[in-house]
Amino acid sequence: MEGNHSTAAEGGAGSAGPARTLDELRARLQPGAVLTDPVKTEAYRRDRAEDPDAGTPLAVVRAASADDVQEVIRFAHATGTPVVPRGAGTSLSGGSTAQDGCLVLSLERMREITVDPITRTVVAQPGAFNGEVKAAAAEHGLWYPPDPASYTFCSIGGNIATNAGGLCCVKYGVTTDYVLGMTVVLADGRKVQLGGPRLKDVAGLPLTKLFVGSEGTLGIITDVTLRLVPAQRAPQTLVATFPSLEASTDAVLAITRTMRPSMLEFMDGPTLCAVEDETRMGLDREAAAMLIVQSDEPAGHAGEEIAEIARRCEAAGATEVYSTDDPDEGEAFVAARRIAIPAVEKKGTILLEDVGVPIPRLGALVDGIAEISREHDVLVAVMAHAGDGNTHPLVVFDPTDAAQRERAHAAYGAIMDLAVSLGGTITGEHGVGRLKQPWLAGYLGDDVMELNRRVKAAFDPTGILNPGVMFDEPPRP
Amino acid sequence: MEGNHSTAAEGGAGSAGPARTLDELRARLQPGAVLTDPVKTEAYRRDRAEDPDAGTPLAVVRAASADDVQEVIRFAHATGTPVVPRGAGTSLSGGSTAQDGCLVLSLERMREITVDPITRTVVAQPGAFNGEVKAAAAEHGLWYPPDPASYTFCSIGGNIATNAGGLCCVKYGVTTDYVLGMTVVLADGRKVQLGGPRLKDVAGLPLTKLFVGSEGTLGIITDVTLRLVPAQRAPQTLVATFPSLEASTDAVLAITRTMRPSMLEFMDGPTLCAVEDETRMGLDREAAAMLIVQSDEPAGHAGEEIAEIARRCEAAGATEVYSTDDPDEGEAFVAARRIAIPAVEKKGTILLEDVGVPIPRLGALVDGIAEISREHDVLVAVMAHAGDGNTHPLVVFDPTDAAQRERAHAAYGAIMDLAVSLGGTITGEHGVGRLKQPWLAGYLGDDVMELNRRVKAAFDPTGILNPGVMFDEPPRP
Question: Which CATH number goes with the domain that contains B271?
Fold first, then answer.
């Protein structure tokens, strides 16, 4: 239950106080837990954002338990050492980029998953992959909905840290909607339990929710209690291609206004071409955009829903509409969407955007992005969780071409400015990390940024937790 | 957008600084906004918790706009005056009980509701009733799901303050799941925008979610942006009576393990009798418990779901199972559940509990409550959102019988202790308020309680916002 299982900040079982040297820390952990050999630590310096300015850590510590995490944070607290937590290292915003002299706290060994089918909850350690949580739930006929495209190789801890989204969010919501509780190691090494397997609990401030999306800046999550729902029905799938971006976003609005499909994804022309290059599945290279839509309603009703969506796509000007109730055939289209990022990555180095707008501005956003692409003379491939207004424009450039690289970075910033000018956000689901930290204060405004800093200071007064993420300076207690 | 519309803490339009006397404040607000006549302020001293120890306010201020709220908070900030915010005054935990010398800040005049059907969101001012928000959404074929039993007379601001639940939560979640953004006046009078009409937004700490359930202790919400979903389908309804509490909770577990009905409510024998006294609708006075279950799946599928639920109720030992696809007939049973609290209130003075447990412990909880009722020799009528494990035991007593009154209060505390011992919470949806404040630290534990205090201090360092709610002492900055 919330907070009833806290342990002392200092002096765990068998230890007189926190470790104060790396050797002392090493002696308290399992053999091989502390890595300092640069050959071994190199892989932990960067995440999927591939920051060229990643620092050199003091050490990488691979915790095997919440006790280990406490030992590490007590050491960090006692010595003022920054800690960069890391799950599977798939952050697209530099949330796990190592800093000089930091401890990279890897949670990759903490992967236990325990499903409670009666309560319909699962307790997972942070290093477990999202896909492993889904698989464990499925063994009991249950489902953990949030599904980042990277779900087969991203960690649930990273999902919590960023309040990750995915493809099913348009109907099933985002990560925070499924988080009931968690165990957290605080910046001083104390361990607390927030929330738990109770579907309703309003006792005290909602600190559980505060941690979902806190990107490792407030504490280290050592396990999380997630709500599960009954298994999803096999979906029916519709694919529609459009001769213009406008027709495709008109169709999105026509659908979302009164319907709630279980998936509503968008790929623009450049994305379609990149995916077709990769898959040779026969996608229309001439199309300006494609929508992939699913309904997971009961069979007869799903057919009606898909038929109505087909009508709305046609009314919006779709060139071709194809639907199928064969789940495997449908999954092939969804797989095409999921490999869109890797497919575009083969065209050059990418800057991956994650901007979102209120749904009615989706058309203005994708039009504006196309204009930014032309103006800056760089390829921008756009894929989107269209039903959420959340887009992933990928700015593609040749890293050996300095001028193009500069244009790409200018386009990247211009896309964020555009989204904000449309009432949108600089990040819908990937997080601020280090990559977007410079844009955060401008987006939030000074007052809200100051509130963020006050909360940060309340949890991490000395600023040792994931410095450089969200905040550019140590907190002011 | 988040935080881009903040205004200065001091010096609003046409004023040189905060009002420092009640007369100055009065001069800046609409005529009749400031009430000091005890005859007029009396109705604002208590909420539905009817705290006999309610204080006498300095004044009641009925704000008509966010600007008015800023004027009030600037005055309070400048003079150190406590502020007790109040929506419709339906708190069951004393969240709006007046304190001596406080300003009661009534938001009853702020009732604007603006639906955006394209974004499928609604912006509502805090004084609007939940039912008015539902009705405004329904005009566009949309639905705001959260449905406290009091939805026709509770305010949306109070719903946000307590993260209110209701009957549909078993399938559709609680208030926080629908809150996308809000405007908040901070303790120093600054106004900030948190979140907005974006379905995904992870830029910065999730402060929006932190406010949902904060019970007026962190800031004053002046409008809220809520997510809407397509209109609910007409439900099919099942009613089952059981010869024992155990049989009824067995049925609950058998249903929730793999199914997600849109409603799963419970009434015990004493509750059934009280409702039958009120309605004369022919409820079984001999039954130990009754379940009311709904399915809002598409028609054919709902029939299958209800049939399967009927089988599971019968297998658990139901005496009688009745189902109907007539929405009006179904609504009559739901109405019976909704009037359960007023019906029991006619039996005496009540202490209303709101304890919740993980679903598998529901049987142990209702059994234990029955035992507490016998041991303390007081009537306890139990109704529950059974599918959430959230129960409302009503301890009934004769206020003129001092000994009975004492036994009732002892039973009230014993029920909370029981719930906590079963891994449950002291409040599932009503909030801590002032009534349960003495139990909060014991439930959360010292470390989590301290975290709560640190967050409170970060937002309200001088402790002027709703003092006595959740926290028993001024924050320590």
Answer: 3.30.70.2190
Instruction: Verify that B73 and B170 share a domain, yes or no.
Output: no
Assign residue B52 the CATH number of its domain: 3.30.43.10
| Residue that terminates a domain, selected from B343, B370, B387 | B343
Report CB contact under 8 Å: B206, A198: no
Rg (CA), chain B: 23
Please tell me whether residues B226 and B134 are part of one structural domain: yes
CB B390 within 8 A of CB B384: yes
CATH number at A393 reads 3.30.70.2740
Measured in angstroms, the CA of A40 and the nearest CA of chain B are apart by 33
Q: Judge: A358–B119 Cβ closer than 8 Å, yes or no.
A: yes
- List chain B residues with CB under 8 Å of A297: 298
Tell whether A83 and A38 lie within a shared domain.
yes
User: Is A37 inside a domain boundary?
Assistant: yes
* Residue in B with minimal Cα distance to A259: B230
CB contacts of B454 in chain A (<8 Å) are: 458-459
Cα A383 to Cα A264, A265, A266, A361, A362: the distances in Å are: 11, 8, 5, 16, 12
Q: Residues B149, B253: one domain?
A: no
Q: Do B202 and A359 lie within an 8 Å CB cutoff?
A: no
Closest among A447, A467, A443 to A456, alpha carbons compared: A467
Whole-prediction pTM value? 0.95
Model confidence at B136: pLDDT above 90? yes
Asked whether residue A282 falls in the same domain as residue A338, the answer is: yes
B194 → chain A, closest CA residue: A448
Structural domain for B258, as ranges: 233-343
Size of interface A-B (CB pairs under 8 A): 311
Contact assignment for A204 to B432 by CB distance below 8 Å: yes
Q: Say if residue B334's pLDDT is above 50.
A: yes
Over pLDDT 70: what percentage of chain B? Answer: 96
Residue to test with chain A: of B70, B122, B160, B205, most A Cβ within 10 A: B205
Domain count across chain A: 4
pLDDT along chain A (477 residues), means of 10: 42 69 97 96 95 95 98 98 97 96 98 95 98 98 95 97 95 96 98 96 98 98 97 96 97 94 97 96 96 94 96 98 96 94 94 94 96 97 96 96 96 96 97 96 97 97 97 66
What was the pLDDT predicted at A11? 41
Nearest to B165 among A116, A200, A430 (CB): A200
Indicate the DSSP class of residue A93.
Answer: S
Query: If you ran DSSP here, which 8-state letter would residue A339 be given?
Result: T
- Whether residue A466 is contained in a domain is answered as no
Q: In this structure, are B214 and B126 located in the same domain?
A: yes
The first and second tokens of residue A86, run together, are 């890391």
Quick one: B135 and B198 in the same domain?
A: yes
**A455 and B200 in contact by Cβ < 8 A?**
no
User: In whole angstroms, how far apart are CA A14 and each of A5, A71, A74, B119, B292?
Assistant: 19, 11, 14, 57, 54
Give the residue from chain A lying closest to B476, CA to CA. Answer: A458
Alpha-carbon distance of B102 to A15, in angstroms, equals 50
Among the three residues A343, A369, A386, which one is the final residue of a domain in this structure? A343
**Cα of A221 to nearest chain B Cα, Å:** 15
